[in-house]
Structures are given as structure tokens and as C-alpha cells.
UniProtKB/TrEMBL annotation:
Subcellular location(s) of the protein: Cell membrane
Compositional bias of kind Pro residues: 29-45
InterPro entries referenced in this protein's UniProt entry, alphabetically: FAS1_dom_sf, FAS1_domain, FLA_A
SUPFAM superfamilies: FAS1 domain
Keywords: Cell membrane, Glycoprotein, GPI-anchor, Lipoprotein, Membrane, Signal
Natural source organism: Populus deltoides
A single GO BP: plant-type secondary cell wall biogenesis
Entry superkingdom: Eukaryota
Membrane topology qualifier: Lipid-anchor; GPI-anchor
Keyword Coiled coil: no
Signal peptide: 1-23
Name of the featured protein: FAS1 domain-containing protein
């Protein structure tokens, strides 16, 4: 009897407590499930803008002569790869068509195909330079070009903001900026850049000094040391031995013969 009452009491107590526990459970929102911390992925680096050198030089300038050399030597592929597939960029110095027309001597027609290629490579630097960069670049001249160092290097000077170039054979300056946005810089120059490595052997010789003017007094009047007969000073005139041993001896013999005849007569 007592055992049954205990069971009933326990059941009643469980029934009365169950709604309270359920209400508390329903009122408490579940805790969020922790997720592993992860840093945000870095944004991809912006790709440099693609610049078609062929299109750029076709509409500017006119640079048709330089562009034709670029394409015939396949150097345009080298420059284009440097411009868009490297972190260094490129700087190109482009002469206008008139600069090639005014190039009378030396003539590019006498160059070999390899020399023409080196000449075109000589017109570019394997790095992007804005105009303001040339002021510092002048302090580290000479600067190697795409053609190489030594006889293929360029010297830069900045004169009041104007960039001057010296190849050792030809001198020119940057006359305008055609395109200057990293990674491609194209600048117009007044003359064709001629590398000393190719044209250094063709440097014309220095003109011979003018002959000294002749002195008329020395030519007209005989020297005081001359003998009067055209012989050099200090030397016996020609035929002097003949006069001594010829005429004088014969005179003495004639006189002796006359004396002998007088004695006998």
C-alpha cells in the first residue's frame, strides 16, 4: 500500500515538473555552432592593360618606317612580350618617318639583317620609365638597351625637363610623349639612334691640318750661309778638285816647259 502511494506520488511529481522544463527548453535558443576561423582570400592583382604596339604606332606619328622595321625583324614580338608578360614593362624611343628620310649618311641600306635588328632593339629599354624618371636615370648612365651594354648603351641627361639621349654616335632628344602608362612608355625622338657598336668604325677621320703658308722672303733671297753656287753650306762646290788639280797643275807644267826651252835656246 505504502509502496503504491510512493509510485503515484513520484509520477505526479514528474508530470508537474515536465512542462516547466519543456518551457525553459523552448524559451532558450540553441547556441550557434562554432565554425573554424578563416582569413578572407586576397583580391587578385589587377592585370596590366594590354597595349598593342602595332595599333599604337599605326595611328601615331607617323611612325610607319620604324613600324616596318619592327615587323620585318620580328622585334615587335619581343617588345610586345616585354610589355604585357613581364613586371618590368618597356620604354621605346620612336623616330618619325622624317628622321629616317633625313638620314643621309650612314645609310641603313648597307646594314645586314642582324645589324638592322640590333638597331631596332637599340631603341628600347627593358623597363618602364616615366618622363620624371629620366632625371634620376641620368645619374646612372650609360644605360643598357635591349640590344645590350657597351656599344649598345645610351647616356641620358635632363636639361630643364628635356630628356637628351647620346649613343656615342648620334645625339637627339625626346620631343613628345606618345604613350606613358605603366607598363608601356613610347616617346618620340628627333633622330634615329645609331649605336656606336655598329657605326663606330665608320667615324670619318679628322680633317688634315691646313699647310703652313710659304714665306716669300725665304724663297726669293738666298741664305747667308749659302756658297752662292747652289751648294750646301760647309761643302765644297762641285768640280773644285778639278780646278785645283786640273787648271793649276797644267799652268805650272806650261811655265816649267817654257823655262826649259829658254835655257836651251
Amino acid at each position: 500500500m505504502e509502496f503504491s502511494m510512493i509510485i503515484m506520488f513520484s509520477s505526479t511529481l514528474v508530470f508537474l515538473c515536465t512542462p516547466v522544463a519543456y518551457a525553459q527548453t523552448a524559451a532558450t535558443p540553441p547556441a550557434p555552432t562554432p565554425t573554424p576561423s578563416s582569413s578572407p582570400a586576397p583580391a587578385p592583382a589587377p592585370t596590366p592593360p594590354y597595349v598593342s604596339l602595332t595599333d599604337l604606332l599605326s595611328v601615331a606619328g607617323p611612325f610607319h618606317t620604324f613600324l616596318s622595321y619592327l615587323e620585318s625583324t620580328k622585334v615587335v614580338d619581343t617588345f610586345q612580350n616585354q610589355a604585357n608578360n613581364t613586371d618590368e614593362g618597356i620604354t621605346i624611343f620612336v623616330p618619325k618617318d622624317d628622321a629616317f628620310k633625313n638620314l643621309k649618311k650612314p645609310s641603313l641600306s648597307n646594314l645586314t639583317q642582324d645589324q638592322v635588328k640590333q638597331l631596332i632593339l637599340f631603341h628600347a629599354l627593358p623597363h618602364y620609365y616615366a618622363l620624371a624618371d629620366f632625371k634620376n636615370l641620368s645619374q646612372v648612365s650609360p644605360v643598357s638597351t635591349f640590344a645590350g651594354a657597351g656599344g649598345y648603351a645610351l647616356n641620358f641627361t635632363d636639361v630643364s625637363g628635356t630628356v637628351h639621349l647620346d649613343s656615342g654616335w648620334s645625339k637627339t632628344k625626346v620631343s613628345s610623349s606618345v604613350h606613358s602608362t605603366d607598363p608601356v612608355a613610347v616617346y618620340q625622338v628627333d633622330k634615329v639612334l645609331l649605336p656606336e657598336a655598329i657605326f663606330g668604325a665608320d667615324i670619318p677621320p679628322a680633317p688634315a691640318p691646313a699647310p703652313a703658308p710659304e714665306t716669300s722672303l725665304a724663297a726669293d733671297s738666298p741664305s747667308s750661309d749659302s756658297t752662292g753656287d747652289g751648294s750646301a753650306p760647309g761643302t765644297s762646290p762641285p768640280n773644285s778638285s778639278y780646278r785645283i788639280f786640273g787648271v793649276d797643275v797644267w799652268s805650272q807644267l806650261v811655265l816649267a816647259l817654257i823655262g826649259v826651252l829658254v835655257v836651251f835656246l
